[in-house]
Design brief:
Elements (H helix, E strand, L loop, with lengths): L2 H10 L3 H10 L3 H12 L28 E4 L28 H6 L1 H4 L4 E3 L13 H11 L5 E6 L6 H9 L4 E5 L4 H7 L3 H18 L4 E8 L7 H10 L4 E6 L16 H15 L4 E4 L9 E2 L3 E2 L1 H5 L8 H4 E4 L5 E2 L18 H5 L2 H11 L11 H7 L1
Parallel strand pairs: 1-2, 1-10, 2-3, 3-4, 4-5, 5-6, 6-7
Antiparallel strand pairs: 8-9, 10-11
Helix pairs in contact: 2-9, 7-9, 10-11
The chain binds S-adenosylmethionine (SAM) and iron/sulfur cluster.
Iron/sulfur cluster (SF4) binds next to loops.
């Protein structure tokens, strides 16, 4: 473990309260063994890997019940100003929105069938929402048994009361963004210790309440964060995090392109090493692109072979089984389309009208025919293959 990280943890556990917390969070050999068995049995499979698209009828009207994954950005307010985040490019006047509960009610038909419901989006921090717990109650009331609810958060606003409230509502998964240890503070302009204290509290309360909520890390991989990846794996192991998502940087501007790691030989070596390091600790690293170029399939959603083989399988299955809804009621097939579609959920429209409207239908037709819409050429998952 990195010396600085170790020192930080040690300094935190100096005071009495933290000593108590540490007693709970230190992984016992028994719990570690149980975790290894669960990982082996693949108990922690995440929803997007469980939604094959072969059985979807592409050309005809698509029922709402085909929506298996939903991402509802309940607010686009944020407590941070991370340097690499695309949010910084958006006009300030649209960045203080909360979703109206009437709009959330319009999503109930989709909520009833979805396997995966996330209450976060690409430009906000869900813990900044005043309605988070109310919306979680609503989703819990309508969602089907066994579907997974989740939040992607920077974790800074977590506190004892909020953690308990999330546990009481049986939140399925909390995805915490953590981009390194040394690199964290320079990217996110916030003290790393603040996050660490919250994560330790989360672990302690989880044990106290015997909660089912599991914690996952999101690590944005770029040249400046990769040297910290082994430390993050150590920390994840220490906190009994179940998976670490490795997300390639989507550069917010030209100057960030030098930070990209896709196809960089030195970065690939570091990633291979990290993969082995994590496996030895019973931890799964989930790469959001095929850095080892082993699979024909990119991630779990992009079927690159479709264009080459001209078969009627979509290049990407997002428009067939996924929606993202932003606080202003816009419905998107993925975050790459952010800001480009007109469809909007409001008092006069229904989700069905958008899901089977011109924009969604045209997109499905193109992808089924192996045509890449111009918007998709910037997609990190597709780009490497078709450039
Ligand atoms: C935009 S954030 C919104 C949720 C929350 N505010 C957070 O930071 O976790 C969603 C995810 O995108 C990641 N992210 C931010 N900027 C990115 C970029 N330029 N490329 C790829 N991922 C990025 C974040 O680390 C986070 O895991
Ligand atoms: S990455 Fe998340 S926390 Fe950081 S500015 Fe973007 S939305 Fe806010």
């Amino acid at each position: 473990m990195d010396k600085r990280l170790k020192e930080k943890i040690e300094s935190i556990v100096q005071n009495e309260k933290m000593k108590q917390i540490a007693k709970f969070v230190l992984p016992s050999p028994l719990r570690r063994e149980i975790k290894k068995i669960l990982v082996k049995r693949n108990v922690n499979v995440i929803a997007r890997e469980e939604t094959p698209c072969e059985d979807v009828e592409y050309d005809s009207a698509t029922p709402i019940s085909h929506i298996k994954r939903m991402q509802v950005e309940i607010t686009n307010k944020c407590n941070l100003k991370c340097k690499m985040c695309h949010r910084q490019k958006l006009p300030q006047h649209i960045l203080n929105q909360e979703i109206d509960l009437k709009l959330v009610e319009k999503l109930i038909p989709a909520c009833q069938n979805a396997d995966y419901i996330s209450l976060s989006g690409p430009s906000g921090e869900p813990l900044c929402s005043n309605n988070l717990l109310n919306i979680l109650d609503l989703v819990n009331h309508y969602k089907k048994d066994g579907s997974l609810t989740s939040l992607n958060t920077n974790g800074i606003l977590l506190n004892e009361e909020l953690i308990k409230n999330l546990f009481k509502r049986q939140l399925g998964m909390i995805i915490v963004s953590i981009d390194g240890v040394r690199s964290y503070e320079s990217l996110r302009n916030i003290d790393f210790t603040k996050l660490l204290i919250n994560l330790l509290a989360f672990r302690r309360i989880k044990l106290e309440m015997n909660s089912i909520t599991r914690m996952v890390f999101n690590f944005v991989a770029m040249k400046r964060t990769l040297p910290d990846l082994l430390d993050i794996i150590d920390l994840a192991h220490f906190l009994e995090v179940t998976e670490v998502n490795i997300i390639p940087l989507s550069p917010p501007s030209e100057e960030w392109k030098k930070e990209e790691i896709i196809d960089d030989t030195f970065s690939n070596e570091m990633l291979k090493k990290a993969k082995g390091y994590a496996e030895a600790r019973g931890l799964r690293l989930i790469f959001w692109w095929d850095f080892e170029k082993e699979n024909k399939q990119f991630g779990s959603n992009i079927r690159v072979s479709a264009a080459e083989e001209k078969i009627n399988t979509p290049l990407c299955d997002f428009p067939f089984n996924y929606i993202m809804v932003t606080p202003n009621g816009k419905v998107w097939p993925c975050c790459g389309f952010y800001g480009t579609l007109e469809s909007s959920l409001n008092e006069a429209t229904t989700l069905d009208e958008i899901w089977n409207g011109r924009e969604y239908t045209e997109l499905r037709k193109k992808l089924s025919a192996g045509i890449i819409p111009s918007k998709c050429t910037n997609c990190t998952l597709l780009r490497k293959k078709f450039n």
